[in-house]
Prior knowledge:
Keywords: DNA-binding, Transcription, Transcription regulation. This protein is an alpha/beta fold. Helix content is about 40%, strand content about 15%. The chain has helices at about 15-25, 55, 85-100, 125-135, 155-170, 185-190, 210-215, 225-240, 275-285, 290-300, 305-315, 320-335, 340-345, 355-365, 370-375; strands spanning about 1-5, 30-35, 45-50, 65-70, 80-85, 105-110, 140, 175, 200-205, 220-225, 250-255, 260. The chain is globular and about 70 Å long. It starts with a strand and ends in a 13-residue tail after the last helix.
Amino acid sequence: MRQILCAMMSPNDQIVREIHRFGRDHDWQVELCGGRIPPGWSGDGVLTDCLPLEELKKIRNFERTPVVSHTLTPGGNVRTVAGDTRRIAEMIADYFLDRGFRNFAAIDARDWNRQGCIHGIDPVVSLREELERRGFRLEVCHWKEDLHPEELADYGSVLARLAEFFSEMPRPLALFIPNGRHLTVAYRVIHQLGIRVPEEFAVLCNTDEPFFTENASIPTTHISGEPLKLGRMSAELLERMMNAETVPEAPVWVPPASIVSNRSTDVLAISNPKLAAAVDFFLGNFMNFISVEDAAAAAGLSPSMLVRLFRKHLRKSPSEFLRGLRFNRIRHFLDKSDLPLPEIARRTGYGSAMSLSIAFRREYGIAPGEYRRTRRRKNSDLPPPDQW
Length: 388
């Protein structure tokens, strides 16, 4: 039996459950610890989220112990499996821009780029880069930019810093929170300042843990589909390393599946009332068998005028907007449910499984069934390293 240390500073239930599930199938004994390595620990492999290298080096025979991290730069005995923050940033930018937002902000405890982490690991940095590419600015507030992963900022100072930051932000504002554990303090300050959610601040969180999003004072829109696959792929990679297989040093990036909307973003920031009416129609009816003509009629416009408004204000066509809503829901169903394809087609505005499959393959270059299998791939199904 292999002895595996699961060292998580911020344990995610879905990630840890997936690691345990994999371990049961592969004769692992999984030991859990937090942000400190047990003195003198030795074993066959280590899985960690964001423990710094200096802490991991306390492991006996560290250089000969395979380590899979979510944040460290890969090299030597360390490999990295991390969330695809660039894809997350693209999805967030699309989500808010499609709803008319032009003011953006994010908050986090620290600047992860100062923690010796691999470039591209910080979703705030990725979102800033993505918005700059599209001609927009992201305002960022850190509790303390050089805050050590094991260090806690003074709570009173955090409240004061957030209050000052939020008070200075233009409205309506799209607010991104990259860590579910920061939702409570963010909402505490938002409520103290009398800021209305979602009318003045629309909030989106990078977590797939219902404990944070559903139990927040305002049910919160969130990124979905990353943790289970992150846990599974981390365990699969560690198994390969312990089997002495040659694995590439390049990081393995795990994309999310979808954005799950909730009350915290149930608002539009579109000044043109006709365009707002059309967008609202799409948001409320995309799961039905509707067309661009139906949205134009609901807004009191001709289809050609609706196309012009969409391209002027949202930089895409109405049909592209509608497809984006449907594909987001389709990816969520494929990732999170066992619904058969005909039922998914019925729930996302497609007339048949065939028409959905054709549209999905055209968009992603892969059939829906294959997409579902890759999201749930087991270790035995992994491609060889040179295809990662």
